[in-house]
């Protein structure tokens, strides 16, 4: 098994942080490009593209999720 070579001189802190910052900036740009937020045409809230609006439940001009209906909690499993 080969050993790793050790550095001859200590690397400056600014060089280490500069290398990390470029990686961080590239990752941030990639993340922003993949997740795009759009405005909901009905309630004008931010929502992910091609998904139903979490606040009003509309998608593509029609109601997909009924926000007025209360969800009943299932306490017992009927067998």
Describe the SSE topology.
Elements: H1 13-34, E1 37-39, E2 46-48, E3 58-59, E4 62-63
Antiparallel strand pairs: 1-2, 3-4
**Beta-sheet strand percentage?**
5-15%
SS-based structural class? alpha+beta
Number of helices: 1
Total beta strands: 4
N-to-C terminal Cα separation, in Å?
A: 60 Å
- What does the radius of gyration come to? 25 Å
Average pLDDT taken over every residue: 83
Strand order of the largest sheet: 1-2
Secondary structure: helix percent: 25-40%
Largest sheet, strands/sense/barrel: 2 strands, antiparallel
Give me the strand/helix succession: HEEEE
Shape: elongated
Low-confidence stretches: none
Your description of this structure?
It contains 1 helix and 4 strands; from the N terminus they run αββββ. The protein has a domain at 35-64. Strands 1-2 form a two-stranded antiparallel ribbon. Strands 3-4 form a two-stranded antiparallel sheet. By secondary structure, the protein is α+β, with helices and mostly antiparallel strands.
């Amino acid at each position: 098994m080969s050993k790793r070579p050790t550095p001859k001189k200590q690397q400056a802190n600014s060089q280490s942080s500069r290398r990390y910052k470029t990686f961080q900036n590239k990752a941030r740009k990639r993340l922003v490009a993949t997740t795009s937020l759009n405005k909901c045409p009905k309630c004008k809230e931010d929502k992910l593209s091609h998904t139903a609006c979490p606040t009003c439940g509309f998608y593509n001009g029609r109601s997909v999720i009924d926000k007025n209906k209360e969800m009943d909690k299932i306490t017992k499993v009927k067998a």
